[in-house]
Known about the structure:
Blueprint: H1 15-32, H2 41-56, H3 65-82, H4 84-100, H5 106-112, H6 114-125, H7 130-137, H8 141-151
Helix pairs in contact: 1-2, 1-3, 2-3, 6-7, 7-8
Amino acid sequence: xLPKKLSKKQEVxxxxxxxxxxxxxxxxxxKAIRAHRGGIYTTWLDEVVKHxxxxxxxxxxxxxxxxxxxxxxxxxxxCWKKDAYCYQEFIDRQSRKGKLGGLKGGKxxxxxxxxxRVKALAMMKEGMTQKQIAxxxxxxxxxxxxxxxxxx
Length: 152
């Protein structure tokens, strides 16, 4: 499974080992991510760590595990985010969480401010400034600007 140029123990020192590992594993990962579509990120990360460990065995002087893990995490995260399918799964999951709401965020949080938004628009029609409205409703000026921009 190792590339031919890493099939025997190599003498690579300094940053060379890190760069060699990174380049070798990233090229593998660009294709390997496809097998993990619809899966879980931690499973993917474990697979990348395993591959990094196998590449590390080809070095005469092995890299410490902390560097292997950091390199694997960098590659795994990049590929996971850049893979269109995995990224869309993440976006869909976040969207579902937002719509369901919870203690904070999403539609529930937005609905909590609905009455204040109505008051803000009414105050605006009465001629109050955005600053006065923000102070009265105990929200920021930026919030008032967003409400007006979105409701007008």
